[in-house]
Amino acid sequence: MDKLVVHGDSSLTGPLTVGGSKNTALPLMAATLLGDGPSTITNVPDLRDVRTFSKVIRYGGPSVTFDPKAHTLSVDATALETPVAPYEMVKKMRASFYMLGALLGRCGRAKVSLPGGCAWGPRPVDLHIKGMRAFGADIELDEGYVHASTPPGGLEGGTFRLDPVSVGATINLLLAAVTARGPSKIENAAAEPDVVAFGRALQEMGAQIDGLGTRTLEVQGVDRLRSGTFRNTPDRIELGTFLLMAATASPPGTPVKIRKGTHEHLGPVFKDKLAATGVDVSYDDETVTVTRPDTLRPVSIETAPFPGFATDLQAQWTVLLGTTDGTATVTDTIYDDRFKHVPELQRLGMEIGVDGNTATVRGGTPLQGAKVMSTDLRASVSLVMAGMIAEGRTDVLRVYHLDRGYEALEDKLGAAGVSIHREAYDEFAEPERESVAE
Q: What is the pLDDT of residues 383-425, one digit of tens each?
């Protein structure tokens, strides 16, 4: 197993480059199954989740070719003979459940395992299933699998309201609805940039979708979608992560450039909150420049669906609050169990208390390096971020979580001035005996 070793005696000086979005690449991969031939996606990051989902797609018969150096992925879905997504693959990542909508839309039937993924918070798929039923699918659950089928000729279409709003369910329902026989409507749909970029790719394939970027999506089904070439959007969560790293770990007064991100995808709330801390940020077309002040002000945040503050950035914001000169809170309204990084940050010396879905952070306490353990994707990057500002050495264990969503993070940070490297370690090795000074 791998760990990242971070030394806090270095500074982030930049530049940093944002890669392709994981949260858009995976839906685009699912969309290729609806095409009538080979499709290509560019700007695809080399991530564990991309490789895992490639295996899920291949299982059904399509061929998938990925060039990690060119960041190009091609799918030829001409042959899709087995509309199945097995447990052994789906358990590794929740996004594999997109196969339900894609296989129903393409084959009219699907057998998809209930998903796995990060070990935090209830993220039920009941919205996906209820929505498919509302569109006319016949669905049964048996031994951990969803068995779904459409009436002869495909889904009839229908109307379904998402409560609460869900990015994953919005994507899955779009995959199923674009080839339905009749019209469909998704109410209270997700408006995240990832969903909009995915929906526009479907439109390029011939799908008839109105309302992208709003809370109401209307779809008129078509018989078949065409294949094509699509460019994946930059990763807005990686951009936000890099912004927060620069705001905490760079030398005060020294500008840090972050390249190839789409800053509009951060949303206005994130930008306003960051500005309120005193960080100087300038936004250009493809470059964001961050200049850290001598002192950061504590600013409380509350997560919300886009255009609100992204839940995938709350763990990183918690670390930023630890460097401020006061007390502020982080409230997650999307998930009520996404604070498993808190005990690990406490091991580094951060003063945090959790009450329900709110974490209260008292800033200003110096952090000390220690061994900490990743529990999920965004928690893991928050621990790396904390290690960058802690005194001494921090070992971040179980970084396979990190590898699901950040491509070569140690290489990017290392080239930007941070002392960080990857090491293999034995998770079950006996610890060496230590002597205790009298």
A: 999 999 999 999 999 998 899 889 999 999 999 999 999 999 9
**167-177 and 193-204 helices, crossing angle to 10°:** 10
* Comma-separated ranges of CATH 3.65.10.10 domains in the chain: 2-19+234-424, 22-231
Q: Is 118 marked active-site?
A: yes
Sign of CA dihedral 308, 314, 317, 318: positive
Fold of 2-19+234-424: UDP-n-acetylglucosamine1-carboxyvinyl-transferase; Chain (3.65.10)
Residue in 112, 118, 178, 389 annotated catalytic: 118
Is pTM beyond 0.70? Reply is yes
pLDDT tens sequence across 281-291: 999 988 999 99
Helices (H), 215-325: 236-249, 268-276, 314-321
Q: Hey, which CATH number is domain 22-231, 3.65.10.10, 3.40.50.720, 3.30.420.140, 3.40.50.1000?
A: 3.65.10.10
Can you tell me the distance from the alpha carbon of 404 to that of 377, in angstroms, rounded to the nearest whole number? Answer: 7
Helix axes 99-107, 126-134, angle to 10 degrees: 20
